[in-house]
């Protein structure tokens, strides 16, 4: 398992476990595209996020829809976005709970994995 | 290029805490070098820029927002100074744009939904100085009660529960003062000198769930307690009692010589703690720095001690021979009631063949009676039962 070249040292963190299980992720448009699975570091290579670098190299996923909904209730810019779901496997990287929301995970994908491959659109609306 | 606006009237910002994160912070608190706090939420994402809503907030208000006292909608809609900042942060190198608007003019669709609370445990009181330091500074014995009240997100305490805990702790200390002096008996009011010597005064409250600091009201030297004041001796005993509460055999050994009043006071305190508190720690210190102590009470220990105190009882037996009039009872009920000039004995018949037990109401008898005295550990008054062992007709 190898990690993308831009990951800092000791990233993913030691306590991250192999990725696994059903997860949800928000989409920019109404269809799944590779852009949706780029980390913020990959989207903005030169931006200063004032956060640990490893954190911004990861991708946010939720273990359940309620976690997504709760975030959307609080953050207006995330409302109205479509949702996709997929099952991660250990070959796809590592993940770890991050933040206060118990269903939120940061997923660090491996260099080799096709990140969007296992994901499908959630047909029911994600909006709350 | 920066995530936070740079070189703006908001100052030099740094993120304090992130409340919602999705690939990057979406809802967070930050502050500038002048310690102005802001609550921030991402309200729009467009290809060229992110648009953020910044509201200034006082530290106290931020504590309340964080702990769920104020919902996120109101945190942004009902700002303290009526002003909000719309910050447009381009993705390229161009300077951020800041628009100052009235909070009432913010697009409602930008706001968090009502009834969305953060509900994060938050220290809303300053941390207290250690009891050791306070004792030396004030030359008074200090005691700190650290109480974690159920379902409290801020450093607050429900008044009734706190009041009950403090009152019962004071009563325990007073009763322990009585005990350590070796005063005979447990009845009657605690003598004034002991009550005064063990009286505590509330001198502060602080963070760490909820902490209260109590100090002695009056210094009272006590000649028959070498090197210790009554209060010190009482607190030593209370600390040891609490420590032993976690070990059933040590606990029963410690309380076996306690006066009923003392165990009763401890039981009352334990019941209050069981009802309202998940964690309790008591610490105390004397000004001379030689005397101090700390002890912790866990829920399981409290439960076990309450069960023990409510169940255990001492039993004493005594045999009395009385002469009196038989005034009640018969062979069917196997009960008796005999009245002497001074007393009345009522109870059950034991050790007499039921077929031969045929007393006559109004006749005089000599009765051999077993007197059974039961004293529960936490009860101040014993109960007395009687058993009729033998009955001899006199006239």
Question: How do you describe this structure in short?
Answer:
The complex is a heterodimer of chains A (128) and B (395). Chain A is α+β, with helices and mostly antiparallel strands and 128 residues long.
Structure report:
The complex is a heterodimer of chains A (128) and B (395). By secondary structure, chain A is α+β, with helices and mostly antiparallel strands. Chain A is built from three helices and seven strands. In chain A, the strands form two sheets. A four-stranded antiparallel sheet of chain A has the order 1-5-6-3. In chain A, strands 2-4-7 form a three-stranded antiparallel sheet, with no helix packed on it. In chain A, strand 5 (93-97) and strand 6 form a beta hairpin. Chain A starts with 16 loop residues before the first strand and ends in a 7-residue tail after the last strand. The model of chain A has no long low-confidence stretch (mean pLDDT 91). By secondary structure, chain B is α+β, with helices and mostly antiparallel strands. Chain B is built from nine helices and 16 strands. Chain B has a six-stranded antiparallel sheet. In chain B, a hairpin with a 6-residue loop joins strand 15 (364-376) and strand 16. The mean pLDDT of chain B is 86. Classes of the chains: A alpha+beta (128), B alpha+beta (395). At the A-B interface, helix 3 of A face strand 1, strand 2 and strand 3 of B.
